[in-house]
UniProtKB/TrEMBL annotation:
Residues 1-23 form the signal peptide. The lineage of its organism: Bacteria, Bacillati, Actinomycetota, Actinomycetes, Kitasatosporales. The keyword Hydrolase applies. Keywords: Hydrolase, Nuclease, Signal. Pfam families: Ribonuclease (PF00545). The keyword Transcription regulation does not apply. One of its GO terms (molecular function) is hydrolase activity. This is Ribonuclease N.
Length: 140
């Protein structure tokens, strides 16, 4: 019985050490400013002044769309990758063609739904869950 308890304590210690906020995350923190915690992601200049969301906090479908973008496709919707016009002017102003949009699947929706990932040529990623009414900069 005492061996079982000792074994469980060792497993618990290993699990807790792996969940420590100062443990390396493997996600890279080269952009983390001095004084930030090791697991945090610095807010890039292009996202200053706007709402942000860490990639890990996006809906699972949005994370899948980001993985498809990283791989270059193939995309499930014919309109994925088209130019996003930014007609609502919620994103920083750039020349036409700077932004592109990708569908984030919405479970239960019969069409593309309202969720999108917008990419910018400067490496920006934005998420909208309400069909361009609001955006959050995705921190990766």
């Amino acid at each position: 019985m005492s061996r079982l308890i000792a074994g469980l304590l060792v497993v618990l210690a290993v699990l807790l050490a792996g969940c420590s906020p100062t443990a390396p995350t493997g996600s890279g923190t080269s952009g983390t400013p001095t004084g930030a915690s090791a697991g945090s992601v610095a807010t890039p200049g292009w996202a200053e002044g706007m709402a942000t969301v860490p990639e890990s906090r996006l809906p699972a479908e949005a994370r899948r769309t980001l993985a498809l973008i990283d791989r270059g496709g193939p995309y499930p919707y014919a309109r994925d990758g088209i130019v996003f016009g930014n007609f609502e002017r919620h994103l920083p102003k750039h020349q036409r063609g700077y932004y592109h949009e990708y569908t984030v699947r919405t479970p239960g929706s019969r069409d593309r739904g309202a969720r999108r990932i917008i990419t910018g040529q400067g490496g920006e990623f934005y998420y909208t869950g309400d069909h361009y009414n609001s955006f959050r900069a995705v921190l990766r």
